[in-house]
Amino acid sequence: MASRLAGKKIVLGLTGGVACYKVADLCRSLGKLGAKVQVVMTQSATQFITPVTMQALSGNTVYTDQWDARIANNMPHIDLTRDADAILIAPCSTNFIYKLAHGACDDLLSTLCIARPAHLPLFIAPAMNVEMWSNPATQRNVAQVKQDGIQVFGPAAGEQACGEVGMGRMLEPAQILAELEAAFQSKTMAGKRVLITAGPTFEPIDPVRGITNLSSGKMGYAIAQAAWEAGAHVTLVSGPTALDAPYGVQRQQVQTAQQMHDAVMAQVNTQDIFIAVAAVADWRVANASNQKIKKSSDSDTPQLQFAQNPDILASVAALAKAPYCVGFAAESENLLEYGAAKRIKKNIPLLVGNIGHQTFGKDENELVLFDANGHQALPKADKQSLAKQLVSEIAKRIQTN
Ligand code: C5P
Known about the structure:
The protein is built from 15 helices and 19 strands. By secondary structure, it is of the alpha/beta class. It has 2 domains: 9-183, Rossmann fold; 193-284 and 303-400, Rossmann fold, CATH 3.40.50. The strands form 5 sheets. Strands 12-11-8-13-16-17-18-19 form an 8-stranded mixed sheet, sandwiched between helices. Strands 2-1-3-4-5 form a 5-stranded parallel sheet, with helices on both faces. The model has no long low-confidence stretch (mean pLDDT 94). The protein binds cytidine-5'-monophosphate. The site of cytidine-5'-monophosphate has 14 residues, from helix 12 and strand 16. The active site is at 162 (proton donor). Residues 189-396 form the DNA/pantothenate metabolism flavoprotein C-terminal domain. In the N-terminal section; belongs to the HFCD (homo-oligomeric flavin containing Cys decarboxylase) superfamily.
C-alpha cells in the first residue's frame, strides 16, 4: 500500500538529545516511504549526531545556521518551509519546547518554526529525562504549545539513557511514523469509541491441546489501526495471534470465545461502533480435561463432546442500546446470497463478506459490503487499504444513521 507520506515534504528538525541516533533511522524510513526530507539541526543536535550522517540519509543539504549563504536570498528560515507539508521536531528537547511556547527565534530551527505559514502543521516528539518532563515549567510549556495547535507525539515511559526510568522517552521511529501517517488522515471517526474483535479463538481440549482456526488477525488489526488513524478511540479484543498491538490501540488478549464474549460485553455499553472481525469458534469442548489426555492404547480414542459458544455479535446486536454493529462473514461459496441473508439473520446494519479460505492468513483480500440498500464490492487490495476503505464506509453510514 502506498504510504500517505509518499511525495510529502517533511522538514525534520533535530534538537539536542541522545534520541538523535534514533532519528537517523526515522529519516531513512521517511525516505523509503517516498517522503522528501529536509533536515535542520540545532547546534546542540550536532553534538549528538553529525550533519554528514543526516545529509547522507536524507539525500539533501542539511542546514544548521540561520546565516547560511547557500540559500540564494539568505533566508533559510523562510525558504525551507514554503513548499513543505509538515515540520516534525524529533527529538524535541525541553529547551526547544520552551522556545516554541514563548516564540523565541534565536537560531535557524526556532526562527523557521515561528516563520512557518499558518496552515503548516508542526509536530514535536519530546525526548528528555523524567524529571525534566515532569517539571511544572515544562508541563506549562507543553500545555501552551498544545493550545497553540502544535501536536505532541508521546513521549513514552520507560528506561532512559541517563539510567532513570519514567516518562520522557521519545517514541520509537515506527511509532512517530504511525503518528505522522495518522496526521495526514481525515478524522472521519473523531471522538468515536470503537470496539473490535479479531483473530481466532482457541478452545482447549486439555492443557496442551485445543481447537482453533486459520485466522491470522491481520484484517481485524488493520481495521483497528485504520479506525485509530481516523480519530477513534479503539479497543481491540484479540484471540491468540502473532501480531503486535497496533500503535495507539488498546488491546486486550483473550483465548476462548467465552472470554472474548465476556470482555466485549463488559465494555460494549460505552461504545459507538462494534466490529466483529474475529473468527469465533462456534463450539467449545464441553468435556475438556484438566490433565493431558493420555494415549492408553491404539484403539482407545477420546470422545469429545461439544457445547455451543455464545454468539458475541448477536448478543451485542440484541442490546437495547446497541452500538452500530458490523459483522463479517467468511463463506466458501455463494457469497452474495449468503451474505445478504446473514446480515438480516444477524440483525445488523452492515455485514462484510469475504471468501474465507482465500483470505485467512493472507495479506490481501476482497470484500463485499451488504447493507439495507444492497451490496457493494471493494476489489482486491492489501488488507490495510481495504481497512481504510471500510472505515470510511462505516463513517459515512454512522453520519447518516
Ligand atoms: O454466523 P457466522 O459465524 O458466520 O457469523 C460471523 C460473524 O459473527 C462474524 O462477524 C463473527 O465475528 C461473529 N461471531 C461472533 N460470535 C460467534 C460467532 C460469530 O461474534 N460465536
